[in-house]
Write a structure and sequence with these properties.
Layout lengths: L10 H7 L8 H4 L3 H9 L6 H20 L2 H17 L10 H20 L17 H6 L4 H8 L4 H12 L4 H8 L3 H21 L1
Helix pairs in contact: 4-5, 4-6, 5-6, 6-10, 9-11, 10-11
Organism: Candidatus Collierbacteria bacterium GW2011_GWB2_44_22
GO molecular function: DNA binding; sigma factor activity
Family: Belongs to the sigma-70 factor family. ECF subfamily.
Length: about 200
């Protein structure tokens, strides 16, 4: 059974992708994202549910990094899935679907922030151990939550590439595609973000 993001307001969308008891063929599970999108574009609309299954948890986590509100993040993700579904004809199957869908979430989240006049909140205090290597901490599973919380104190333009690289495990090329900035700029922002993170966490 496929679980879509709760509270989806687009009933037509839910009916088309099969909200309840959508059975995904085992063979379909072996398909790449791009192959699935191609099938959906050809008329196999219920297959989009497998895309939702693959991405909803990752995208919800990513949206939460950006808007820092679980309910708002759910709205962002469900709106992004609907937007992606309605605009599949604009996706080029020779490109990576993951970069495309992350880009949609990126735009939707920033629009949500602008529309609601929200600012990213400062997060609870915690001590960053002196001499701790940031990169080691970022890949330490026990520290992921602490690090993701600290991201909330950074400006979006620094927090986003850092989260994409370390927490979402995207390459510089993928981040460049998602944020529509040169790879060199990605590298600069990540380097700057790491320095800012250390300073912010020391002062919390």
């Amino acid at each position: 059974m496929t679980t879509l993001i709760p509270g989806n307001r687009d009933l037509a969308f839910l009916k088309e992708v099969g909200e309840v008891d959508c059975i995904i063929n085992v063979e379909h599970m072996k398909l790449s994202d791009e192959q699935i999108v191609g099938e959906v574009a050809l008329g196999n609309k219920t297959l989009f549910a497998s895309i939702v299954d693959r991405y909803q948890e990752k995208l919800l986590r990513y949206a939460t990094y950006l808007v820092h509100d679980p309910d708002e993040a759910q709205d962002v993700v469900q709106d992004s899935f609907i937007s992606a579904y309605k605009n599949l004809n604009g996706f080029r199957t020779d490109k990576k679907f993951s970069s495309w869908i992350y880009r949609i979430v990126h735009n939707t989240a920033l629009n949500s922030i602008r529309n609601r006049w929200r600012f990213l909140p400062m997060l609870p205090d915690f001590d960053w151990p002196s001499g701790q290597d940031l990169e080691e901490e970022m890949i330490d599973k026990e520290k992921v939550k602490m690090v993701s919380d600290c991201l909330g104190s950074l400006k979006v333009k620094y927090a986003e590439p850092l989260a994409l690289y370390y927490l979402e495990e995207k390459t510089y090329r993928e981040i460049s595609d998602i944020l529509r900035i040169p790879e060199g700029t990605v590298a600069i922002r990540i380097s700057r973000a790491k320095k800012l993170m250390k300073e912010i966490c020391k002062n919390q």
